[in-house]
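Appendix B. Raw example, untouched.
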Amino acid sequence: MTHLSPAATPATLKEPALSRLLFADPRLAPLWLILRVYVGYEWLSAGWGKISNPAGVWVGEKAGVAVSGFLNGAIAKSSGDKPEVAGWYAWFVENVALPNAVVFSYMVAYGELLVGIALILGLFTGIAAFFGGFLNANFLLAGTLSSNPLLFILATWLVLGWRVAGWWGLDRWILPRFGVSERPGALPAEPTSQRRQGDAVR
């Protein structure tokens, strides 16, 4: 069997100490917990408000009514001397989202709820934050500011700190099952068998 020589081994980039401290050091887990729970609560409240809406304009008999109004507003903002919505996004809204308003209504309502629950529990924090940021980006592209810029920034930070953002949460026990080190920033030890084979080749 042919083995790769040390010179053929792919190079790895060393992570700066500041980056490890901010995004992979469990000592900062309390800070990440505050950010994570705050963002999670905002999404949970928004999603639950839509799902429990008594008029059923998001989820229920009248599903799609609220999101249709929102999407039509986005299309209206794409015209004029200073449009707030880009033409390509207005095309997407008019030709894809609006004809499927009921589907998008359920996706938004339950998407917000699931993102909020996952962030509060610290479950697959990086993935949950990514989808939360994706929702924020779509709201921003549709011309809606509100709290979306702040939540988008915080979601980006949570994605960057995914290794430790859920340290005080379920990720602490779940991520190691997917090969993530229990000590963020530490490189996995090289198996003994591979070291012996490498020594034999040299």
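End of appendix B.
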